[in-house]
Amino acid sequence: MAYTRYTGDPYWKRAKSPGTSADGTPYRKGERVFFYPRTGVTYAGGSAQRASAEFDELASLEG
User: Fold this and answer.
1) Which of 14, 25, 41, 48 is the most exposed place for a label (fewest CB within 10 A)?
2) What span, in angstroms and rounded, lies between the C-alpha atoms of 3 and 29?
3) Contact call for residues 10 and 37 (beta carbons, < 8 A)
4) For residues 63, 40, 34 and 16, what is the CA-based torsion angle, rounded to 10 degrees?
5) Helices (H), the chain
6) Contact predicate 36/30, CB 8 Å
7) Cβ-count burial of 53 within 10 angstroms (0-12 exposed, 13-18 middle, 19+ buried)?
8) What b/e readout covers 31-42, taking b as 16+ CB neighbours within 10 angstroms?
9) pLDDT digits (tens, 9 = 90+) for 2-59
10) b vs e for 15-26, b when ≥16 Cβ sit within 10 Å of the residue's Cβ?
């Protein structure tokens, strides 16, 4: 995808500690999660895939 990246854009990372995503899905340390740094919201599992796809779609419309 060719879109401009900005500071504060969400990104995939490995969880440093176990926790619960915004929709209540638990995740373990080391699991891949989608993280929004501006708000601190983390998504795991299927909701992470959906959040990533939604962000990519919106970012591509910026064009």
Assistant:
1) 14
2) 31
3) yes
4) 140
5) 45-62
6) no
7) exposed
8) bebbbbeeeeeb
9) 678 889 999 999 999 999 999 999 999 999 999 999 999 999 999 999 999 999 999 9
10) beeeeebbeebe
